[in-house]
Amino acid sequence: xxxxxxxxxxxxxxxxxxxxxxxxxxxxxxxxxxxxxxxxxxxxxxxxxxxxxxxxxxxxxxxxxxxxxxxxxxxxxxxxxxxxxxxxxxxxxxxxxxxxxxxxxxxxxxxxxxxxxxxxxxxxxxxxxxxxxxxxxxxxxxxxxxxxxxxxxxxxxxxxxxxxxxxxxxxxxxxxxxxxxxxxxxxxxxxxxxxxxxxxxxxxxxxxxxxxxxxxxxxxxxxxxxxxxxxxxxxxxxxxxxxxxxxxxxxxxxxxxxxxxxxxxxxxxxxxxxxxxxxxxxxxxxxxxxxxxxxxxxxxxxxxx
Length: 305
What we know:
This protein has 305 residues and is α/β, with parallel strands linked by helices. Helix content is 33%, strand content 32%. The protein is built from ten helices and 14 strands. The longest helix has 16 residues, at 172-187. The two termini are 32 Å apart.
């Protein structure tokens, strides 16, 4: 699959403080986002996620490194025309109605009046905002503002959508609605890059993720590959004859008169249990592998840095 975004060796430092001092924010960031995927940029606050996004948008110029979007260099007019963007806290003209705001956004992209109105009507239907289209934005809920922000980001029919913390401040219903909308946008063949520190959203949405800590990429990969590692096995036993097995690594999680749940670290102990079950007469009811979660990977990477 071809790349939608390619970043190589991106560095950025800022000079801060009363006594000027350089602070490195990005230290050689390299990313490769494939066309048609949802790519998650994960990391703690201050890791460099937003600075990376600002470099892609040409709002911040990197000290070194290169960025290509759909084969075009960044910054360039062709690359910028293919991007849609939703910031973490979208600023809207709150005295405008939802419909007026979208028409205004379309006109800024150079669309003519009939096309602007046509695109606005399509997006209001897509985001289920028709009934609220003539309501002033200051009366919109947080979830409705996220939807109108997403609609604004799509008004120019971008190939590449950048979302900075799109679930920020939303309740569970609002988060589900935005997740569903992101999946709908992906189904249209668009590419989405979104930054987040909400790992459950990333697990539900992303094809691949990169974890950034202190301006460096710590891990990149497909979620199914990152979470494939099996940490241990939980085994349910029935007709269990004794409280513990000697000479075998295991941990008793729970037990009753009829069943016992134990945790063993590897397949070797599973084979040992199977052999022992034939000799001692107990039964193995189930074997459940415990896989590494995205949260465990994230915490491991952030603690190591």
